[in-house]
Write a structure and sequence with these properties.
binds nicotinamide-adenine-dinucleotide; 9 helices; alpha/beta; 7 strands; binds ligand 0WE
């Protein structure tokens, strides 16, 4: 039990396939008390059954595009919990037209602004809003993707936003470390979630991932959840500002094993 007596708020559950759902499950298995923050009431019909089955009692709305919504969310949380020990940011968004086609042709000022606002700035905004309520030895966690460091067809401006999010992780770690707050990111391999469902050729990308990854497969939201539980636990008390890859080793291999005779 890694997380006994820890209260952690998770942002980014859309449905049972969300990475945030895998994180909630693993954290609960490890004894954490979890609150969920969801984007809008349209998602409640998906989230209520998940919360019920996991025994989660605290549900709050939070649209990270809106400062008022963030303030309200922490106001409501603080009425239930006087302080807490962790926050998981599992949120990313760019307008759909930014994620198909040639990068230089499709990227717009507005698309760039939205991608960076929702996918990177929101982590700073949530850290800022959570700070008054965080206990000593708290942990913040976000979810990133290899497109921050290496190009990838169609990922486009999201790659730039993830690069910003990773720098954000390091600056938050430096900023909050003296308060005993650690800040880390998990770089997950591709997983078929709602955010991936609209993406052209996503199945092809999953196949290519399995071919190149040392483990010869993709990863599950449970595997991401288990690492999230560790990073938010006191067993990771010496780790901050880090990007941990949960991608079956994909980022470490330059070429698929099966292409070349060994
Ligand atoms: P998902 O669609 O289940 O989750 C994305 C979440 O972002 C949703 O819950 C959505 O409600 C939330 N969101 C978007 N705009 C928001 C806003 N304005 N306010 C509040 N919430 C908002 O998909 P997922 O794959 O679980 O994505 C979670 C995180 O994991 C994202 O940061 C994504 O970039 C990252 N990630 C995903 C993959 C993958 O292949 N699925 C791989 C690596 C990293
Ligand atoms: O970070 C992500 C998902 C990012 C994402 C996806 C969407 C689709 C629907 C952000 N915004 C939106 N907006 C929408 O309207 N991933 C790591 C999964 C993902 O998304 C891709 C990928 C991969 C991998 C998009 C293009 C290419 C590869």
């Amino acid at each position: 039990m890694l997380l006994t007596d820890k209260k952690i708020i998770i942002f980014g559950v859309a449905n049972k396939f969300s990475i945030a759902t895998g994180i909630a499950k693993s954290m609960i298995e490890h004894g954490a008390e979890i609150a969920l923050a969801y984007q809008n009431e349209r998602l409640l019909k998906n989230i209520e059954p998940i919360a019920k089955s996991l025994g989660i009692e605290v549900l709050v709305e939070c649209d990270v595009a809106n400062d008022q919504s963030i303030d309200n969310c922490f106001q409501l949380i603080s009425e239930k919990w006087k302080s807490f020990d962790g926050l998981v940011h599992s949120i990313g968004f760019a307008p759909a037209d930014q994620l198909k086609g040639n990068f230089v042709d499709v990227t717009t000022r507005e698309g760039f602004k939205i991608a960076h606002d929702i996918s990177s700035y929101s982590f700073t905004a949530l850290a800022k809003a959570a700070k008054p309520f965080l206990n000593q030895s708290s942990s913040l966690l976000t979810l990133t993707y290899l497109g921050s460091l290496q190009t990838m067809p169609n990922y486009n401006v999201m790659g730039l936003a993830k690069a910003s999010l990773e720098a954000n992780t390091r600056f938050l770690a430096a900023s909050m470390g003296r308060d005993g707050i650690r800040v880390n990111a998990i770089s997950a391999g591709p997983i078929k979630t709602l955010a991936a469902s609209g993406v052209k050729n996503f199945r092809k990308m999953l196949t290519q991932h399995s071919e190149r990854a040392p483990l010869g497969r993709t990863v599950t939201t449970e595997e991401v959840g288990n690492v999230a539980a560790f990073l938010c636990s006191d067993y990771a008390s010496g780790i901050t500002g880090e990007i941990t890859y949960v991608d079956a080793g994909f980022n470490t291999a330059a070429m698929p094993l099966n292409e070349i005779e060994t």
